[in-house]
Amino acid sequence: MSQQPTVKEQAMEQGKIKKGYADIAAFYRRQIRDGELAPGERLPTVTEIGREHGVARNTAARAVSQLRTERLIETRAGAGTVVASTPGVISGADRLDRLNRTGRRYAHGEESTNHSVAIRSCMDDRTCRALDIEPGEEVVLRIRTFTQDGRPTTVGLSIIHPRAARAVPEITEEAPLPKFWQEIYRDRTGLQIVKGERTAMARQASQDELDALQIDAPPHTAVPVLVTHVTFHDEEGPIEHWEDVYVPGLEVPMPT
Question: Measured between alpha carbons, how far is residue 177 from residues 51, 124, 142, 186 in Å?
Answer without folding.
Answer: 44, 27, 12, 14
